[in-house]
Input
Amino acid sequence: MSMYRSHVLVCAGAGCISSDCKAVQSALIANIQAQGLKDEIKVVETGCMGPCDLGPVVLIFPDGVFYRKLKPEDTADIVTEHLLKGKLVDRLLHRPTGKSEQVATFDRMEFFKRQTRVTLRNTGLINPESIEEYIARDGYQALGKVLSKYSPEEVISAIKASGLRGRGGAGFPTGLKWEFTARASGNPKYVVCNADEGDPGAFMDRSILEGDPHSVLEAMAICGYAIGAEKGFIYVRAEYPLAVQRLETAIGKCLEYGLLGRNIFSTGFNFDIEIRVGAGAFVCGEETALLASIEGRRGEPRPKPPFPAQEGLWGKPTVINNVETWANIPPIILNGPEWFSAIGTENSKGTKVFALAGKINNTGLVEVPMGTPLKEIIYDIGGGIPNGKKFKAVQTGGPSGGCIPAEYLDTPVDYDSLVKLGTIMGSGGMIIVDEDTCMVDLAKFFLEFVQEESCGKCAPCRIGTKRMLEIMERIVEGNGKDGDIELLEELSQGIKSSALCGLGQTAPNPVLSTLRHFREEYIAHIKDKRCPAGACQALVTYYIDARACKGCGLCSKNCPAGAISGEKKKPHVIDAGKCIKCGTCKDKCKFNSIFIL
Amino acid sequence: MRTLEDLNKLRDKLQAEISIRERKQEITVNVSMGTCGIAAGARETMKTLIEEISSKNIKDIALTQTGCLGACQQEPLVQIQKGGEKVTYINVDQEKARQIVNRHLLEGKVIEQWTKPEE
Ligand SMILES: Cc1cc2nc3c(=O)[nH]c(=O)nc-3n(C[C@H](O)[C@H](O)[C@H](O)COP(=O)(O)O)c2cc1C
Ligand code: SF4
Ligand code: SF4
Ligand code: SF4
Output
């Protein structure tokens, strides 16, 4: 065994990769070698640790010290001061927004302290390309346990008793789904992992696949045993090449170690897993479309029933679960269903991973018990809204979801409470918007997304969403008419009740939800030709406050339309007729004299 | 990997390597690494500690480093902490380092004559 006195974990999640963690990692390794510490210090590349806006980050063990926003040059100090001499490099420590003191170790950061990591238990902590590190963290113990001690029925009972519900959107009880499939007649049976992750802004599935691929493989094998299947498929979108590569590495290692393949643990159980790379169309995440795509047909949905549990891949009984759902399985088996069901709320057990994005200080990936109040997620973990702006709403559930306004910040987040507010948990994307966001425009964004992603198979979705989008476009351009709101509502109801698959059935949700909570914004756009948030270009007017203007001339110099005039040291004015509403002047003015009406 | 037993054996072996990240160590061995300590040979002391601890396959030990402890003439200094108990060894050369691992860490016996008297 080789012992290292210190492990330096370098986050190589998507966020950190985009802030060039690779350069930091190389510099770190070079400095460690230069100081002769190569045999004492181990550098480990991990999956996403979560606090993406702080990247590149490193985490140093055994002390647990966390350094953030690193540049390659910073690594010299980390090596000579911290790793060699044991002194903290203060300037590289995390300083929470609005606080003056630094926080040295990760377990004292609000961001980590308030999380409960079940699905992300290994993500960001182990090297995802090392099966050894997964095994050291009790990897494949759950598979060993079920194969040696449980009957297939006992596995299903355990999953049922845990109360686990699917994390892919609809929240269907996982144990029940397995039971239906186990009992269905038809052979062979199949196990499928849905790693399509089409929701804009969501990246939890990707982070699990890239950060802890073995947890998904192990879970799929457990399900195979429980339902009597010998074959599994993972459907990943082509936009996730690193996830595909890590899965391939992981599957290869499993075959080598005999953890997949034939006669696993000498119990006679055979199971293997194949990867299928999808084209990355949103509709391919819908289960029947996904199955069609695996079979090599066009990724188009079909009516349900029959459900995949009855007739799935090639017409055979199939369990299809989401990545995050899978990652929950091994800990449930190892720690017992009671342990799992003790976390969360009455009808929503366990934890949920959320991807925080938008107008929030700490963007990134967090995992909290179901039932954690929205406020805690957004303010305590997420660090609140940047630049002193006001929180306006949080959009959950992606294109199938809706938004929750500020008055419901105390809501505990679980499947049922979100539905009551007119949105859904969905896959866990949380887009936070502040006072500068126009809710009509936001709803239009999601409608545009589903309209483009509609497969076109059925008319309500193909034509209906197009009609809705035309109305929304008219409204934000200032051409809204009396009756538009009613028309939107009527179309929404029609599409919801007649579309063939979940995409169309939920496509109107962002519009309905913003109409429910922010109806007055629609009215302002339609009746007063005004955008209260000052976001819809066509509806805003730029003004210069004559009392505040110092006449510096910076705005007129930068205006691309030549719309600003005025003498030096005298208040300037904007000619609304010439102004193209680019916003340059407002950005340039150092005296905050330009405002939007 | 033919049986669950094989997996368990492998896990037990690998756990020692990763336990440092789980922060469950019962014992902390701390080498003082100020300029004074390094000049007095603390690097060699540290390397010897690593070699000895890993060759004896001792688990759940955190080996860390701190700055100058203000006793430069007694460098290299090695502190061993277990629970609330702290023992400081002074002038730890490579030979002493080996002894400390074997007698203190493995057998649990403090080598009184090398420790700092005030503590
Ligand atoms: C339009 C549409 C897109 C979907 N996209 C995904 C997706 O990207 N990932 C996913 O896991 N489930 C997605 N689903 C849900 C799946 O159809 C299915 O319910 C889910 O994979 C079941 O897994 P679970 O029970 O573990 O949640 C989508 C559903 C619809 C209607
Ligand atoms: S609802 Fe939309 S996505 Fe679904 S089948 Fe119909 S056209 Fe295709
Ligand atoms: S930049 Fe601001 S202060 Fe200067 S002239 Fe323009 S509006 Fe006035
Ligand atoms: S918004 Fe753009 S075009 Fe209009 S006045 Fe300002 S700089 Fe000129």
Remarks:
- Residues A 166-170, 172, 194, 196-198, 282-283, 285-287, 320-322, 325, 427, 501-503 surround flavin mononucleotide (ligand 1) (CB under 6 Å).
- Chain A has a mean pLDDT of 94.
- Residues 509-527 of chain A form the longest helix (19 residues).
